Amino acid sequence: MTNLPDSAHQRRASIGVRVGQTVVGNGAPVVVQSMTNTDTADIVATARQVAELARSGSEFVRLTVNNAESAAAVPRIVDRLAMMGVQVPLIGDFHYNGHQLLADEPAAAEALAKYRINPGNVGFGRKKDTQFSSIIETALRNRKPVRIGANWGSLDQNMVATLMDENHARENPWDAARVAREALIRSALDSAARAEELGMSRDQIILSCKVSGVQELIAVYRDLAARCDYALHLGLTEAGMGSKGIVASAAALGVLLQEGIGDTIRISLTPEPGESRTREVIVAQELLQTMGLRAFTPMVTACPGCGRTTSTLFQELAQSVQAHVREKMPEWRIKYDGVENMTLAVMGCIVNGPGESKHADIGISLPGTGESPAAPVFIDGQKAMTLRGETIAVDFIAVVEDYVARTYRSRGPA
């Protein structure tokens, strides 16, 4: 793992929250989570997607629980996952009617590992405290933690109005963006304080304050982290589709994680039609791994290509190697200790190829345009062999498999 500057370790919540068997905060590794987009009442489809997300590396999976049918489905989803050999904490996402659903479906309240509450729509007017209190009391009875998640798309308008009045009375009024940030933070912190008044301990509470702008997210979490020591969930809400969503999420979360802010993350990507939901899990893992905060799977360094690399051979090999190690990781993770830290390099010509290959555990420097049709392979910084011919891809993957078996300590029988 990369040696990080002290700033990347400074904050990390001092309070640890146990969700299932996983700890969030208190120095534990940053946890990756995702969310289904199936109809939760469709037990088969939801269990299938939860399993897909969990197998791709999502350590928590959140479900929409918005009606009686979805609440009743939760324990059956848990049972079906158990039959599939999948154990992953499920988080219930509640808006408007969570108090009623948890009261009416005690089996769902028991089966869920955590409840997500939005203080902006948990209730309105005089009902707000009653309905919020009902969810907290259910969580206490079932010994479940909660995430109190404020979102700027659903702020409590009474709180906003109060803060606007307070701001108007200031000698030097804040700008509108700062008032909005304060509303988010106060919504989360006031709700957490109320949960504690009701008997919930600080190690049962995770907070989030989500916005969809990069600079706004950085500003609000810096402020929130300075004002509390709760475990924090990070995510850029409604990040968007494709490269836009990936870049925006990485830009915002990368800054905060580098400053030691954030204990669990989600990359909220809009999936393209027909695309697997697992992409957001892979992006979250790659963000943490490229920052040196965690290791999930061997990473492949590959050059971007230039006029020296008019062949697509190195691109195809890099793609094949990355796909191979991701496919093999479920098996390798069980059999070998530390294999996720392995580094690979697939380079396209003589300029940087040998040098980059020597820096990786295993690297190959493919011939660029006009170069000799030979591909030297470097293992642990030393040239080990030269590959030639039509089977370079197959031969190199065989070298990787042999290296894994020889280098990483076996965990013994599964």
Automatic annotation (TrEMBL):
Pfam short name (any one): GcpE_C
InterPro entries cross-referenced by the UniProt entry: Dihydropteroate_synth-like_sf, IspG_bac, IspG_bac-typ, IspG_C, IspG_TIM, NO2/SO3_Rdtase_4Fe4S_sf
Cofactor note: Binds 1 [4Fe-4S] cluster.
Record keywords, A-Z: 4Fe-4S, Iron, Iron-sulfur, Isoprene biosynthesis, Metal-binding, Oxidoreductase
Signal peptide residues on this chain, from the entry's feature table: none
Organism whose genome encodes this protein: Dokdonella immobilis
Alphabetized PANTHER family for the sequence: 4-HYDROXY-3-METHYLBUT-2-EN-1-YL DIPHOSPHATE SYNTHASE (PTHR30454), 4-HYDROXY-3-METHYLBUT-2-EN-1-YL DIPHOSPHATE SYNTHASE (FERREDOXIN), CHLOROPLASTIC (PTHR30454:SF0)
Catalyzed reactions: (2E)-4-hydroxy-3-methylbut-2-enyl diphosphate + oxidized [flavodoxin] + H2O + 2 H(+) = 2-C-methyl-D-erythritol 2,4-cyclic diphosphate + reduced [flavodoxin]
Protein name, as recorded: 4-hydroxy-3-methylbut-2-en-1-yl diphosphate synthase (flavodoxin)
Domain IspG TIM-barrel: 17-284
A Gene Ontology biological process term: terpenoid biosynthetic process
Single GO molecular function: 4-hydroxy-3-methylbut-2-enyl-diphosphate synthase activity (flavodoxin)
Enzyme Commission number: 1.17.7.3
